[in-house]
Structures are given as structure tokens and as C-alpha cells.
């Protein structure tokens, strides 16, 4: 990240005076609620609960004010670490922006007060109970249009306010959009923001200028590596082209990021993806992204008007500053949205949903996870919050093909199936991909398992991926995420495990994580959903054995967890 050029002071962490509550408690209603008069907060005023997130130089805790019992998110930054990492500008900037946003009634994480002790700085923030937007997109694969509309509108309204104050976010992305207890948007992370000089509409980052390397890709890449450090604000996938070329950012840079986020909500993945940052940047500079089959037409129109290389040509870029973005609001995608009352509206629920192809209807899930995401803050939750996703999907890389089923396949796949029919009708073909006639694991003796394992080792090419477990069922499936599909070999094994392998590169891509909560939901002979607490997996068996898969997985669940048979359907 480049050091900000103005607006903030250089040097060490903010002196104590600047870390005091923003305004005297008597004049600030917010601080009056948190702060009994003339009482400066210290860590002793809070009961620190669990860690809810970690940044590069901060740890965020949930904490309860002992005077009011109110919950806050307290971001704790080690002074020593900030100095060592030369992040004092970043911290100061974040605090300045949060202070500027103190009067915003909604849309932003709110800073209630700051204090410090000899080792740490404390930021007392509103607690976004439902975490980040990103895991919600990942959980359901894609948002339906109603959800996309609502969340795009809330983000747009936040940007209108932010830009009205002359602040560019510069790192807008689904990880920086938090959700409050009612699932409304709270934009956060202003450490990369830019406070514009009122006379200017753009800002230049203080970095070296890129010189070309005569088209030699290796030289360009090397040069890129040299310049990457300190030359780039934001996150690769959402960064605007002008930031890469001229190192300038304007309000329109955030509109580019908005375009990327709208795309991601509809399609399930951001528009510019690759294995390396360098390749992502090349795609951004060439405006190289695809609109997959089934992408909503109005959303496509909006996205294509935001993802425009020339910043001034982006929808909204020429709207008068300070008046919001009437031209974006007027886009037909937002038809019917009442922007003024968004924060009072109940957000549409985020349900598992499989977008259809352009010709066919979507498949909606009948299944409802008890709460939006798993409650509690155990290790699994932290893993989710920290975006580690260990043991889960690693399939978000570049080896993605858009849905390419033939029209014949599609009509079979998408034929509406009512769930009674789906479960009642017997499969047309016999199971051909169960191992050894599909014996139930419960029926196998240890000796039989040993013999089968021996045979598997000698004859089954997928054996190397299953860590010594016995494969009970295997088969090619199309694993869908949003509007994208990948072909995978799915392996149900003892353990239990559900491994999936990239059959072209013969690489283990991940596992569907098992737990007693795992549920299968057949949608028709080809499509079935596997619901886990943190994600719904959309799987298509082109051979038409979806019901067999569901039965085998459910049997395994009952065998391992001793629970009653209940599929989601
Ligand atoms: P970096 O500092 O590296 O850019 P970051 O901005 O994500 O990372 P933090 O602001 O320290 O770092 O936040 C760390 C994590 O804590 C976030 O990813 C978020 O999930 C969680 N978090 C931050 N603020 C809040 C909040 N007000 N309510 C709930 N969770 C929060």
C-alpha cells in the first residue's frame, strides 16, 4: 500500500490526545451512551470475549461494556507491531475516516471511541454480528437477483455517502462488507482509503511510475514484482485499471469495485481471476472477463457499464459530486428499489440457490440451515472468519469452465422436479459406480474392508487421494459454484470423507467437510445439493445417479453419527 500523501501526519502512532474519544462525551450522543460522563475508557471497562478476526497488524475481539452490557468489536493493535511494519499512517487514516463517518446513520462500521495503554491501541467499533459478506456468497454459490439487488443497493448507498464526504475507499470487496445483526451492510476497513482534497476528484498514489519493458512478458513480470511492493492499494481482484496504469484513483475506482462485487454476487466468483496477481492485472487491463451462461441480463448491463476501462465513462462517474449516483440508481437493474428506506427494510433471505442456464429456470433449495451461518465462535467459525477454509473448497482458481452442458442434458437437468417425485421414483439405471455392488459400510466386516482396501490399492487409480480410506462410491460429477462448473471425480470413503479431484490434472482439490449437520438434497436425477453448515455444494451427476449419491451419503451419515435418516428434501 502506498503511504497516503496528505491528510495524515507522518511518524509514529498517534499521540494520546488524538486517541481520546472523538468529541467530548457531553456533545456526542454516541459517546454518551458508551461513556458515563468524564470517564475515559480503559481495557478494564470491557470484558474481552473471543477473537472474531485478525488483520495484518490487529486482532479483533468481541467485548462487552461492563457498564452498559453492550457488545462491541474491539480492534486491538500492538504499537510495537505497527511501528515495525510501518503502519502508523494506515492506523491513523482508518481512525480519521471512521471519525468522519461518525454521523452516518447506517452503512458503516461505527467507531465509538479509542483509547490506548502503553502497548496497544484500542478501537471500539460496532459489532457486525453476521461477519463478512464473502462467506455468504461462498456458502450459497450465488445470490438470487432479489438479494443481489438489495445488497448492491446498500453498498451503492454507502458509496454515495462516502464519496459525498470526499472519501474513496480503494479496497472495496466482499471481505470488507460486514453484516449487522439484521443482515444490513456495514462497510469497513478504511486503512487504504483516500480523503480527497475538496478541489480534487482524483488522487495519485506516491509510487514509482511504471515504465514498459518492451513487451517481454518475463521482464514485465520481473518489473511488476519489483514494483508490487508499496505500489498498489487494494486487492488484486477488485483493483481498477487506472490504479494499475496511472497509479491514480478516483471515486470511479470504487464504482469499478462495485461492478466486480455485483458480478460476484450473481456469478459466484469475481470477474477477474487467475493464479497470479500479475495475470489478474493483465486481465483487468485488457478488460478480459466473461459473462457466463445464465447471468441475469439487467445485472449484466449494470456490470458492463461499471467495468469500463476509462474511469470517466463508468456509469455514475459524471454524476454531480455530493448528489449520490442518480444515474446508477436509475439503471433498470434497480427498478423497484426504494433507496431511501433500505435500512428499514428486511433484507431478503440468502437461501441456497442454483442459478439456471439462460434457457431454464433456477433450482431453489427447500433446505433451510437453522440460522444464517453456524452460531458460536469456535475454531471452525474463526477459520471461516479468517477465510482460511481449511479442508474445504480450494476450487476457486482459474481452471473454471462455464456451464457447458448440451441443450439435451440441460433440459433433463433442469426439468422441474417436485421433491416427492424426486425421492419416490426409482432410478432408471442400476448403480454402476458403487464399489463392489454398493455394499453398505455397516454390512462389511473388518476382514472384508481389509480385502477391499487391498484390491483398491492394486486397481483403483483414485486410491492415492484417499489417505488409506476405502472408497465406497465414486463417479464424475459437475461441481457448480454460482454460474461456473468444474468436472470432478467425487469419492465417498470411510472416515467419512467426500473427496473431489480434478481429473485432468489429477489433483485433489478439496473435501466436502463432514459433520452430523451435513444433509443431502436431491433435486432431480442429475442434480443434488450437499448442505454443510458453511456451504452448499451443488453437484450434477451427468449419468443420472444423483439419488444414489444422496442415499450413499445419507447412509454414511447415519452410520457414522448414529442419527435418524432425514434427508433435506
Ligand atoms: P488488514 O488489516 O490486513 O487489511 P482487516 O482489515 O481485515 O485486515 P481488521 O480490521 O483487523 O483487519 O479485521 C480483522 C477481521 O475481523 C475482519 O476480517 C473481520 O472479519 C473482523 N472484524 C473487523 N471488524 C469487525 C466488526 N466491527 N465486527 C465484526 N467483525 C469485525
From TrEMBL:
- Cited SUPFAM superfamilies: PH domain-like, Protein kinase-like (PK-like)
**Example of a GO cellular component annotation carried by this entry:** cytoplasm
This protein's major location comes to: cytoplasm
Pfam families associated with the record: PH_3 (PF14593), Pkinase (PF00069)
Q: Which domain of life is it from?
A: Eukaryota
Kinase recorded as keyword? yes
Q: Where is the sequence biased in composition, kind Low complexity?
A: 28-37, 202-212
Kind of enzyme, top EC level?
Answer: transferase
User: Which key words are in the record?
Assistant: ATP-binding, Cytoplasm, Developmental protein, Kinase, Nucleotide-binding, Serine/threonine-protein kinase, Transferase
GO MF, any single term: protein serine/threonine kinase activity
Q: What Enzyme Commission number(s) does the record list for this chain?
A: 2.7.11.1
Q: Where does ATP bind?
A: 75
Instruction: Spell out the residue ranges making up region: Disordered.
Output: 1-38, 202-227
Task: Name a biological process GO annotation.
Answer: regulation of developmental growth
Instruction: Output the InterPro entries linked to this UniProt entry.
Output: Kinase-like_dom_sf (IPR011009), PDK1-typ_PH (IPR033931), PDPK1 (IPR039046), PH-like_dom_sf (IPR011993), Prot_kinase_dom (IPR000719), Protein_kinase_ATP_BS (IPR017441), Ser/Thr_kinase_AS (IPR008271), Ser_Thr_kinase_AGC (IPR050236)
Please list the residue ranges annotated as the Protein kinase domain.
46-334
Record's subcellular location:
Cytoplasm
Q: Which PANTHER family match?
A: 3-PHOSPHOINOSITIDE-DEPENDENT PROTEIN KINASE 1-RELATED, SERINE/THREONINE-PROTEIN KINASE
Task: Describe the family membership recorded for this protein in Swiss-Prot or TrEMBL.
Answer: Belongs to the protein kinase superfamily. AGC Ser/Thr protein kinase family. PDPK1 subfamily.
Q: What is the protein name stated in its UniProt record?
A: 3-phosphoinositide-dependent protein kinase 1
Naturally occurring in which organism (per UniProt):
Camponotus floridanus
